[in-house]
């Protein structure tokens, strides 16, 4: 019998391939990505990450076992302390403070993605919350691992790659996936979990594409 992580990855693998081939990510590794596109990405991360941490905390509240409560509560703290700190430092490289960045508009994709995660983790079952959250873990870990082998001639981009390709993030993802494999979804929960995973994977692609396009609201 296949592991749940394998089933989930089978759902999102095609989108991951499209993510890896996206010009935003190929531009990170060859150094050709316009700095303004990366700036847009970092500003949107400043908007997104607090809600991502809220989604992780809500997932912890849904967890039926103490190990999963500890995992996602700890991951929420890590998001705030590690990933958010990276964003603050990257903003500084663009001459932006966090408050200044958060006064810039959150793009439509950022609002939609964050809202989708928080809603599913706060209101869904634990399997639905996992389905919503884990593609982000898995895709970032695999992107980081793939890009780490190439690195980047741009030190700012290389710094970002090292964060997600490094041992710490890989271990975090592995721990979350171990919990997934221990799960026994109830009737209909497996299908709903995989459905949430597909939507989240699509949002992952959209988030990088929005940065590439420097997405804004089409109306005032």
From the structure above, extract its key features.
220 residues; mainly alpha; Heme Oxygenase, Chain A; 80% helix
Question: Describe it for me?
Answer:
The protein is mainly α and 220 residues long. It has helices at residues 4-20, 23-30, 35-62, 66-93, 98-102, 108-123, 126-148, 155-165, 167-181, 189-213. It has one domain (4-213): Heme Oxygenase, Chain A. The protein has ten helices and no strands. The protein is globular and about 50 Å long. The model has no long low-confidence stretch (mean pLDDT 94).
Topology diagram in text:
Elements lengths: L3 H17 L2 H8 L4 H28 L3 H28 L4 H5 L5 H16 L2 H23 L6 H11 L1 H15 L7 H25 L7
Helix pairs in contact: 1-7, 1-10, 3-4, 3-6, 3-7, 3-10, 4-9, 6-7, 6-10, 7-8, 7-9, 7-10
What is the fold named in CATH at topology level? Heme Oxygenase, Chain A
CATH superfamily: Heme oxygenase-like
**Biggest sheet architecture:** none
Radius of gyration: 17 Å
Which strand-content bin applies to the residues?
under 5%
What is the level-2 CATH architecture name? Answer: Up-down Bundle
Number of domains: 1
Rough shape? globular
Helical fraction: over 70%
Terminal residue distance: 52 Å
Instruction: Output the structural class.
Output: mainly alpha
Mean pLDDT: 94
Total beta strand runs: 0
| SSE ordering | HHHHHHHHHH
Number of helices: 10
* Unreliable residue stretches: none
CATH class: Mainly Alpha
């Amino acid at each position: 019998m296949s592991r749940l992580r394998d089933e989930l990855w089978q759902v999102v693998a095609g989108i991951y391939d499209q993510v890896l081939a996206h010009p935003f990510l190929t531009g990170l590794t060859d150094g050709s990505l316009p700095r303004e596109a990366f700036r847009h990405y970092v500003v949107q991360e400043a908007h997104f990450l607090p809600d991502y941490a809220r989604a992780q905390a809500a997932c912890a509240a849904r967890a039926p076992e103490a190990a999963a409560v500890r995992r996602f509560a700890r991951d929420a703290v890590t998001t705030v302390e590690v990933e958010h700190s990276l964003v603050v430092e990257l903003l500084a490289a663009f001459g932006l403070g966090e408050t200044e960045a958060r006064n810039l508009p959150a793009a439509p994709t950022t609002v939609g993605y964050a809202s989708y995660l928080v809603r599913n983790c706060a209101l869904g079952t634990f399997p639905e919350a996992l389905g919503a959250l884990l593609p982000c873990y898995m895709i970032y870990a695999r992107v980081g691992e793939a890009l780490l082998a190439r690195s980047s001639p741009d030190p700012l981009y290389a710094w970002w790659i090292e964060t997600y390709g490094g041992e710490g993030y890989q271990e975090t993802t592995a721990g979350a996936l171990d919990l997934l494999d221990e799960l026994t979804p109830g009737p209909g929960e497996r299908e709903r979990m995989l459905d949430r995973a597909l939507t989240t994977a699509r949002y992952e692609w959209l988030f990088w594409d929005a940065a590439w396009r420097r997405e804004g609201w089409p109306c005032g």
